[in-house]
Amino acid sequence: MQKVPLKQVVLLGSTSLVILLHILSLALPYWTKTPYLYSGLFRVCTTVSSVSVCGDVEYKKDAIRAVIAFMFIGLIVLIAVLGLIIAFLTLLSSQSEQRKKIGLAISYGVAGNQKEKC
Length: 118
Prior knowledge:
It is found in: Membrane. The protein has three helices and four strands.
């Protein structure tokens, strides 16, 4: 069995953690908080006499709709990045030189030419 380098474990673990935190930030109702009210992108909750009552946000301003849209776009991009990382690490860990060349070509194509443009 092949030993997995620590860099790969850290890369996959940190990317997965970022995705998890992103999903939590979308779901939890703690974007704004006052002593009696807290709300998120989709729910509003109030606390009266240590009893919490929550409901859905019916009216959303355009700015909140834009935040929701960009949060979902960011989540899709993060999932795509995780898929690319897994594919890249799989290609690089293979024994075939041809697969390594394909992996490097894909990563170069995705990252683009990084030469200074002066």
